[in-house]
Amino acid sequence: MITKAVVVAGAAALILGGGSAALASSQSGPAPASSTASPGSSAADAPGALPAGKDGRRVRLALLRTLHAEWVTRAPNGGTGFVTHHAIRGDVTAVSPTSITVKALDGVSQTYAVGKDTVVRSHPIGSGRQKGTASSIGQVHTGDKALVIGTGTGSPTATAVVDGGTGKAAAGADS
Q1: How far is it, in rounded angstroms, from Cα 103 to Cα 92?
Q2: pLDDT tens digits, 82-120
């Protein structure tokens, strides 16, 4: 269980820091505009298309632009059924010892339950490619930039929280 949590936290840190893991973009916002390629152009020339690149650059660029996502996997260890995963990156609008709410740039807001198995990492903005450090939900404050990954339908539970901080001292911030 701890290994799984560390892997999830590592993936979260990569996403927040612009890593190269992939998330499917959520379709809860407005539908993307359809595009048609004209003769002599490619899909990469379409509005909103990612620039061409090598070594996973397109995936990395897509992750840097991802605000929130939802994806489904099969249950682990040969179990039956499916697991719904959620991720959101944005500003912390509320935080307590038992929950965290993050609002993405497009206005989508998601609240996650926080439990004893939730892994919290501090990965301050501008810290480069550092892995971050172990933290606690008590160190996350309203106004911080954060990435939250969780599982569940309806009311998801956070499996990992990556706190990007605000770049300012946390004096007087909510906890």
Answers
A1: 6
A2: 999 999 999 999 999 999 999 999 999 999 999 999 999
Residues 19, 73: Cα–Cα separation, whole Å: 21
Q: What is the mean pLDDT of residues 26-37?
A: 36
DSSP state of 23: -
* The residue to which tokens 């719904």 are assigned: 84
CB 124 within 8 A of CB 144: no
Q: How many residues does the chain have?
A: 175
**Buried b / exposed e across 68-80, counting CB within 10 Å, b at 16+?**
bbbeeeeeeeeee
CA–CA separation, 129 and 54 (whole Å):
20
- What does the pLDDT average to over 114-137? 85
> 49-56 — which CB contacts under 8 Å span 24+ positions?
56/20
CB 66 within 8 A of CB 89: yes
For 165, other C-beta atoms within 10 Å of its C-beta total: 22
Type of residue at 37: A
Of 88, 83, 101, 71, nearest to 152 by C-alpha is 83
